[in-house]
Amino acid sequence: MSRELVTRWFSKISSAEADLPLLLVAGYAYTPRMAYEEVTKGTALGNQLQALIETNRFGTTTLDEQAIAKVRLQQILQSKPDKPLFATLSGKVFTPSQLLQEIESGTQIGQQWLNQEIAHMKMIVSLR
């Protein structure tokens, strides 16, 4: 196991991503920044987080992945002005608050956003 790998991984993460929840250990979600700090300190938690990063995992079940993705999307969308942000091919336009409603309601659009966020999270955890 290499702390240098975690350092390289963290250096490739954008500042916008560094403070969004990504890794789950013992029911608690950790941001990349928190993981990096714990690994740097050499704590037991840091060792667990490092193991997840090295194996490209979140340490979660599918339901946990969806929960983390939902929290990430809430943080992202709540920070956006409530102006049209997304449009479908059929011409329906969504503001950030409408997208949050779609996600909370579990509609097809909401599920697509969750799935895309999970794919994005997988890309982040596998950065090298």
Description:
The chain has 128 residues and is mainly alpha-helical. It has helices at residues 3-11, 15-18, 32-41, 44-54, 62-78, 96-105, 108-125, and strands at 23-25, 28-30, 86-87, 93-94. The protein has a two-stranded antiparallel sheet with strand order 1-2.
Determine the fraction of residues in helical runs and give it as a percent range.
55-70%
Write the element-wise H/E pattern from the N-terminal end onward. Answer: HHEEHHHEEHH
Strand order of the largest sheet: 1-2
Rg from alpha-carbon coordinates = 16 Å
Number of continuous helical runs? 7
Indicate the mean pLDDT: 94
How far the N terminus sits from the C terminus, by CA atoms, comes to 14 Å
- Which residue ranges are poorly predicted, with pLDDT under 50 across at least 5 consecutive positions? none
Topology:
Blueprint lengths: L2 H9 L3 H4 L4 E3 L2 E3 L1 H10 L2 H11 L7 H17 L7 E2 L5 E2 L1 H10 L2 H18 L3
Antiparallel strand pairs: 1-2, 3-4
Helix pairs in contact: 1-3, 3-4, 5-6, 5-7, 6-7
Outline:
With 128 residues, the protein is mainly α.
Provide keyphrases for this structure.
128 residues, mainly alpha, two-stranded antiparallel ribbon, two-stranded antiparallel sheet
